[in-house]
Amino acid sequence: MARILAGIGAMPGCLSYVVATDATDADSLWVTEVWESKQAHTDSLSLPEVQEAISKGRPVIAGLGTRIETDPVGGIGLG
Questions:
Q1: pLDDT at position 50, please?
Q2: Is 21 helix (H, G, I), strand (E, B) or coil?
Q3: b/e string for 29-61 if b means 16 or more Cβ within 10 A?
Q4: 2-60 placed in CATH 3.30.70.100
Q5: Nearest 5°: CA angle at 20, between 61 and 28?
Q6: Which residues pair with 32 in a beta bridge?
Q7: Which residue ranges make up each domain of the chain?
């Protein structure tokens, strides 16, 4: 988990980035992200810190499971 968290400092356009352990599966992590826009997320993937975190995290990522995209309409921390 530390490998994933290492590269998530300042990411322009990122409103929230949460890494959590799965309560029922010790080998699984959940990453929940909220971005100002899809483009802001795409742009973040080119940041050197993010590229380094992805590179370091790859060995512990068994696969990408469920991916769900939503359009937040409000809530705490979204402005």
A1: 84
A2: strand
A3: eeeeebbeeeeebeebeeeeebeebeeebeeee
A4: yes
A5: 40
A6: 18
A7: 2-60
State which amino acid sits at residue 68.
I
- pLDDT of 32 reads 85
User: 27-44, pLDDT tens digit by residue?
Assistant: 777 888 899 999 999 999
CA distance readout (Å), 34 to 25, 27, 40, 63, 67: 24, 24, 10, 21, 13
Handedness of CA 73, 6, 2, 27 (dihedral sign): positive
CA quadruple 45, 48, 50, 52: dihedral sign: positive
